[in-house]
Amino acid sequence: MNRENIGSIFLLIFSLVVCLYSIRLGIGSAHNPGTGFMPLISGVFFGFFSLLQLIFSCKLKRNMDENDIKKKKKKPKIESKIILVITSLLAYGVIMPKLGYLITTFLFMIALFRIGKLMKWWVIFGSSLLVTLSTYLIFDRWLSCRFPLGIIGYLR
Amino acid sequence: MGAIFENLSSGFLICLQPLNILYCLIGVVTGTLIGVLPGIGPLAAISLLLPTTYGISPISSIIMLAGIYYGAQYGGSTTSILVNIPGESSSVVTCLDGYQMARKGRAGPALGISAFGSYIGGTLGVIWLMVLANPLAKVALKFGPPEYFSLMCLSLIFAAYLSKGSVTKGLAMVGVGLFLSTIGLDIMTGQARFTFDIPEIRDGIGIVPAVMGLFGISEVLINLEGRLDRDFIETQIRNLLPTLNDWKNSIGAIFRGSILGFLLGIIPGSGAILASFFSYSIEKKISKYPEKFGTGVIEGVAGPETANNSASSGSFIPLLTLGIPGNPVTAILLAALMIHGIQPGPLMLHQSPTVFWGFIASMYLGNTLLLLLNLPLIGIWVKVLRIRYHILFPLILLFCLIGAYTINNSAADILIMVLFGVIGYIMRKLQYEAAPLVMAYVLGPLMETALRQSLVISEGRFDIFINKPFSAAFLICAGLLLVIATIPFFKRRKLLEVLDID
């Protein structure tokens, strides 16, 4: 099964879940549409078009020669860099309220600059510190966006 | 006409206040920077800066955010011409001749004509916007819920039809966007929908973290897959002012691009990308030497660059007169205006004239600032282009994180943004476009209200949408587009073939 079909099938199943849940919410009547009315319409809408997409891509597959199919079947390779970046972003969201903006951002920048792999350690440390302090000064001090202090707040 | 000038002068009095000039300057410079940098578009930039505008006046905030939008159209051409990578999707077509001009050592005139064309297109677009806004707002006052619902249907189908790749995928994304807009409390009954007792999404999923994830984070993830360094043409950028011959060749393309861009910009769902492609196609068709297009012809830069700027002015027409955003960027601007307590639409001219006319005047100011700044500062933009991506991407990600957090000072928004970033990344891998989803997400609540109000008015009769002439016309157009869209032979790719664009 190629990636195209996986996407369409996922959307199709998702639309079924949305439709069933919408009916449970109550679709009301045409005189008085209920809470589930609009979600049901949207679920039917994207379900219909993902089904259509599935049919189109199956038809297209039939018309393709073997080489094309082999190319399409190539397993998608997700680079380790991307997984590391996503993990860093998620970790930032979880850790930042506890550790505070300054420490979390400093660690986050070190991690991301390190993923780039092209800088020496002292440059990474220096750049991360500079970025952390300058964004803190601009956003927290100047633009009054209040960042959590975290550990630094407890130490005060 | 006299009233227009009177209102415009009052608008200038507002926008020429020192603080507003500063915000306009910040907006256009940020926009140009965003346009120059591949990997972060005006949508993500506006979303990022939106929380910082909460503390300033509505007019200053809209002046700055709109400046980012049209500034990005200016900046997008620089990367197209010098690196052959469009900074913005609307500058894709500029690569064809702009890059070839740079390879021949004519980067200066290409950048120059692109800046002048953008200025003329942007300014003419604002003049037409100013003239047309009032009559269109009067027509829009006659619209009731059925007309609004049908018009929104048309604009969403248009957005899907013009999205990259398969139209059926675009339409599926419209459906997903509409579904996402229903998450949270039902505006009519107060009942929770799809919240699964998660307090953070009781009021719905925030548009800003969702957009930053779909456009900002996913763009970075996609860029990380490829080479992190770009090929840069080593050419001396001189003679930025086009010669008399360059002007003679470009002036027609600039005026045609202005008109075409504005008209296409008005159509909700189309916008700057289509305008630039259409302009290029027309210039090629009417040229005495069509075979030379793609080898470094100045008309191939002047026309599309003028058209995309004119279209960005035109796209404010549906937003300001109907309250319906024409593209995802104006959708975010709609959200920004609503946060500041301003409801764009036919009544905006009467309820918030200072904001309306101040905003129009600021567009003249912004376009002039862009012309004055861009040509002398081209050296700086070229240096910005040389910044390596492995330095740039951590900064882009950090700004996205800060932007998401500062909306509600909540880490939950960061997690929502990352989730949408991953969804956006998968969507790009599977060639699903995010723009129709965002449009549907913003229009969803308005559509639902209009649909439910229409059904209540008609006592449950769906023929209310056909009995009203405007509504019927919109639905017929939407239906036709939908039929064409579902026939695979008429996919957008075919449209591009008709336009003779590879």
Please explain how this structure is put together:
The complex is a heterodimer of chains A (156) and B (502). Chain A has seven helices and no strands. By secondary structure, chain A is mostly helical. The model of chain A has no long low-confidence stretch (mean pLDDT 84). Chain B is mainly alpha-helical. Chain B has one domain. Chain B is built from 23 helices and two strands. In chain B, helix 10 runs parallel beside helix 12. In chain B, 60% of the residues are buried. At the A-B interface, helix 1, helix 2, helix 4, helix 5 and helix 6 of A face helix 8, helix 9, helix 18, helix 19 and helix 20 of B.
What's a concise summary of this model?
The complex is a heterodimer of chains A (156) and B (502). Chain A is built from 7 helices and no strands.
Query: If you compute it from the alpha carbons, what radius of gyration of chain A comes out, rounded to the nearest whole angstrom?
Result: 25 Å
**Based on helices, strands and strand pairing, what is the structural class of chain A?**
mainly alpha
Give the percentage of residues in beta strands of chain B. under 5%
The neighbouring-strand order within the major sheet of chain B is 1-2
What is the tally of beta strands of chain A? 0
Q: Helix and strand succession of chain A?
A: HHHHHHH
Calculate Rg of chain B over CA atoms. Answer: 22 Å
Low-confidence stretches of chain A: none
Quaternary state reads heterodimer
- Quick one: biggest sheet of chain A? none
DSSP, total strands of chain B: 2
Measured as a percent range, the helix fraction of chain B is over 70%
Straight-line N-to-C gap of chain B = 44 Å
Total tally of structural domains of chain A: 2
| Overall geometry of chain A | flat
